[in-house]
Design goal:
Layout: E1 10-15, E2 38-46, E3 49-52, E4 63-66, E5 74-78, E6 83-86, H1 99-104, E7 109-114, E8 118-122, H2 125-130
Antiparallel strand pairs: 1-2, 1-7, 2-5, 3-4, 5-8, 6-7
Length: 131
């Protein structure tokens, strides 16, 4: 699947819709809790990482910090984290695969965050048992 190539520690995510009903059929009522509300998002693309220190002056020690997230991870982020973007799917583009609409929806809505804005990676019970 072709997604934009992220730079530094930027992460391209799609916010998953809120669940309105549990598996057992209980309807969930969403109470407005303010800007600190958490959401689950799917990681589509990540950058390679970033440099710490000043690599141009040569006087201080520089270190490359690679990103820990990878495409396919599910992460928890603040509802207001990052920048929202939308892409008009109806316009043909050379860098957009047909699967892009399936993942990002009709309007092509996605969000770009820094890796530090992701609170944690959501791991399923199957993945946790395998580890």
């Amino acid at each position: 699947m072709a997604y934009p190539r992220m730079l530094q520690d930027n992460v391209l995510i799609v916010i998953e819709p809120l669940e309105t009903q549990t598996e057992s059929g209980i309807t969930l009522v969403r109470l407005e809790t303010g800007a600190r509300d958490r959401r689950i998002a799917k990681v589509l693309s990540v950058g390679p990482g970033y440099w710490t220190g000043c690599r141009h002056c040569g006087t201080s020690k520089t270190t490359f910090v690679p990103t820990e997230l990878k495409p396919g991870d599910r992460v928890i982020v603040d509802a207001t984290a990052g920048q929202d973007y939308s892409l008009d799917i109806s316009v043909p583009r050379h860098n957009k695969s047909p699967e892009f609409q399936e993942v990002c929806g009709e309007r092509g809505a996605f969000r770009i965050i820094r890796e530090q804005e992701a609170h944690c990676i959501v791991v399923s019970e199957d993945e946790q048992a395998a580890a």
